[in-house]
Amino acid sequence: MTGVIALTRLEILRALRNRRVMFFTILYPTVLFLLTAGTANSNKMVEGTHLSLRTYFLIAYASFGALGAALTTNAQKIATERKEGWIRQLRLTALPGNGYVISKIGSATLITVPAIAIVFIVGGSMGVHLSAAKWVAAFLVLWAGALAFTALGIAIGYGVPQDSVQIVTILVYVGGSFLGGQFFPLGGGVLEKVGKALPTYQVRQLAQDVITGTHVPSSGIAILIAWTVGASVLAARMYRRGVDAG
Amino acid sequence: MTTGVRGGPGSAAVTFENVSKHYGQVKAVNELSLEIPQARTVAFLGPNGAGKSTSIDMLLGLRKPSSGTVRVFGKAPHDAIMAGHVGAMLQSGGLLSDVTVRELLTLMTKLHPRPLPVDEVLKRANIADIAERKADKLSGGQTQRVRFAIAIAGDSDLIVLDEPTTGMDVENRQIFWAAMKAQAERGKTILFATHYLEEADQIADQVIVINKGRLLANGTVADIKAQAGFQRISFRLPGVSRDQLLMLPNVVSLDVLNDRVQIQTSDSDKTFYSIIDAGYRPEDIEITALGLEQAFVAITQQDNGADAHAEVVEDAR
To answer: pLDDT-derived band of residue A243, with 50, 70 and 90 as boundaries?
Structure first.
């Protein structure tokens, strides 16, 4: 166990030092939030909800940050480390077989904390008022929901050929955010129908429902859990395939 | 320092028993059996594609044999690694990005059941001067030394090194072998694969040669040289035929080209006096000792030649 903890600690340290990870985790979501939520009409209500545009974007970009953190810390790194023989080297140590994946899940889960927190802090300073309980609840929903993205990142890192990892990651990152309503409210059309099937949409929607006190549909939670479990199974399968191929 | 008789007294560090590995139709390793006693420094030699890397992968539990058993201190390879018996340096592989050498080695010591202090590891691998550098921003030779440090981060009993000095300049290579000799003096068993035969000649006390996935020779450097023919006698003797010279003692191989005779012999004195006793008076005599490199080339060529011959015979049927 000390080995897994030591590896997780080093993984977190690496992520904090990596400019690319910090960009996608902290800077990019915050800047996009400032650009959209800082505009004049941000006090308007989002159609069909009890949320101001500003609060909508607070949740949207916090979940966008969590997605970026969970995806980018894992997918690209696992692919690189697989190619460079680091995973083989780790298999020559007393680290338990799944220790590598556990450390990746652990570090990604911890890196999503500042990704969500920074947007919350900026949002709070820009006049989004929520009760303490709601801040905490929204945070916990987004944090737990990011597990789906972490598993997805691991599956991509292991399963996608090295050359294609970057493009697949970007597609999932941008495409998932676009259809998940991270960039703008989807407005009930075809986009929203498609988006509802995605974890990006459901995480955001769930956090939003928690804030507005709306009834939380069980179908939404079911979709989110299905993605998390599905991606985890996929990641486990890809991991085992990677191990057998040596 | 204990030498770790961990598989029980007398247990070999490494045992291969009829080990084969097939990739489809290709037999990378073919019925390989060998034993490495504890506390030896063993060179593992073979031409490219001989099955060295596949054998090492099986020894380290990275690949499973198609048939046969590999044992490390009497245990399955993976169990031996989990118990901390084995430290290994793989042939290629980058080091982790965004960490210093010291941080990387701190991690590696924590992943070992019997860790050494990090400063001791740095000292033993001669990399104390680059401890605070970023691990992925080192020269080729420095990278190799850090990778060696990873292999000795714990108090392992067997150290496996696959092509450890590839990419090192002469100075780095000397520093490296000094560090490795120190490990051997601590009673460690060391197995290294190499392309540089002079290294094996100078450092190994056992040499294993494989070719086309089979064991070709296993013994001391002197044994291997004897198997190939210790010395080469070369002279000019007009009019002599191959058959006339074949009955000479200690001859390993014999070539007659025009008037030039070339003999590889396990005892040049005996062979040469017999030539004189038989009444021959050769000219332009040269007697040279074979290095391990020439011995290696000789025995692998003999092996390839034997196979070529067998194929011709099969074709003729």
So the answer is: low
Q: Which of residues 86-145 of A touch B (CB under 8 A)?
A: 86, 88-95
Residue of A77, A89, A100 to mutate, testing the B interface (most B Cβ within 10 Å of its Cβ): A89
* B96 contacts on A by Cβ (under 8 Å): 10, 14, 81, 86
| Secondary structure percentages of chain A, helix, strand, coil, to 5 | 80, 0, 20
Which positions in chain B touch A17 (Cβ < 8 Å)? 98
Selecting from B60, B93, B103 the residue whose C-beta is nearest the C-beta of A86 gives B93
* The predicted structure's pLDDT at residue A206: 93
> Which of B23, B101, B110 is most worth mutating to test chain A (most A CB atoms within 10 A of its CB)?
B110
Q: What pLDDT does A51 receive?
A: 84
DSSP character string of chain B: -----TTSTT--SEEEEEEEEEETTEEEEEEEEEEE-TT-EEEEE--TTSSHHHHHHHHTTSS--SEEEEEETTB-HHHHHHTT-EEEE-SS-PPPSSSBHHHHHHHHHHTSSSBPPHHHHHHHTT-GGGTTSBTTS--HHHHHHHHHHHHTSB--SEEEEESTTTT--HHHHHHHHHHHHHHHHTT-EEEEE-S-HHHHHHH-SEEEEEETTEEEEEE-HHHHHHHH-SEEEEEE-TT--HHHHTTSTTEEEEEEETTEEEEEES-HHHHHHHHHHTT---EEEEEEEPPHHHHHHHHHHHHHHHHHHHHHHHHH-
Q: Say yes or no: ipTM exceeds 0.90.
A: no
- Give the single-character DSSP code of A127: T
Task: Decide if A246 and B93 are in contact by the 8 Å CB cutoff.
Answer: no
The reply to whether residue A7 touches residue B106, judged by beta carbons under 8 angstroms, is no
Q: Residue A2's closest chain B neighbor by CA?
A: B110
Query: Over 80: is that where the pLDDT of A162 sits?
Result: yes
**pTM of the predicted protein model:** 0.81
The answer to whether B60 contacts A92, with C-beta atoms less than 8 Å apart, is yes
Q: What residues of chain B score a pLDDT lower than 70?
A: 1-10, 306-317
